[in-house]
TrEMBL record:
It comes from the Bacteria. This is D-aminopeptidase. Pfam families: Peptidase_M55 (PF04951).
Amino acid sequence: MTVQIGSLVRDRMSGTPAIVVPSIDRWSYSTVSVMHLNENRWPTTLMTSAEKTFFEEYDFLEIPKGIGRVVIMADMEGVTGVPNKWAAVTPAEMTGGQRTEAYDAACRAMTLDVLMAVAGARAAGAREVVVADSHWNDTNLAEADFDCQVLRGSNAAIRAMLGADATMLIGWHARAGAGAACLPHTYTERIRRLSIDGQEVGEPGMLARLAAGRGVPVVMVAGDQAACDEISGDIGCLTTSTKSVDAAGVVRHRTRIEVMREIVGNAYTAIHGLALGTRPELPRHQPGQFEVEIHAGYEVDGDTEVERVAQSKYRIRTGSILDTYGAFQRFVERLPALT
Ligand SMILES: [Zn+2]
């Protein structure tokens, strides 16, 4: 596509401003989709044009001076339309190289959710957007679908946060043990509970504190309702719920168009706020002490980095939360494989 996602345009007929967004009706680059904005700059209707008529229908608007780099970390369990089943989010490498239809669909859905955040962030003035694939082996997103840098894994994302202005978490899930949640877990299914500085966290809460270690705020989270509730009660950023799960594990998916409006709108609002000078409060991330509780049967001994404080409880603390995260990752590597 020759029109960059996140371009700010204006409908020549009506004068309505709009943001160029990914096409959701078909996986096609010969059409251009835009979300029109109302007077509050909130996305309303989705319009799709053939690429060749787009340039007759829309004028390009200059994007006001905004902010620098935004790092988008992407997971899969909380992505729009992804079912509450591990099989749907299990990469091909884990299933003998065969890409299942369900996993393929989840990859496409993840790409769309991330591109919506890219669109909102750019339209609000983010000069550079970096995407970090952070699900399983970090090999779910195809670089060809993005016109920005695609990094692999949380460590690469955290490095990219150096000097960045904001982080967004797209496609996330609730912590281990959360009820009424889509595929809840914390880093690995072997972990029962994780606390940082006394606050129980899931992955979004952990990542918000690691980002804070770089001085960067998490300004928007998209994921299932349980993930949104968890992070709202913790750091209070903008959230977009993609689906909710009842007590029986049955998922109620929101429509893609509803979610699209909200991801684009929230990403736009969050970055626009930063560009206007809002400084969100960072969560407490010092001393950054991790307390990890492991499910019975997966215990290992402590070592020089990790103090074993009870049968299945461990404490990790170094000079900085980022070093502690490194020690935590090495600790998880030592845990026995899931049976
Ligand atoms: Zn994941």
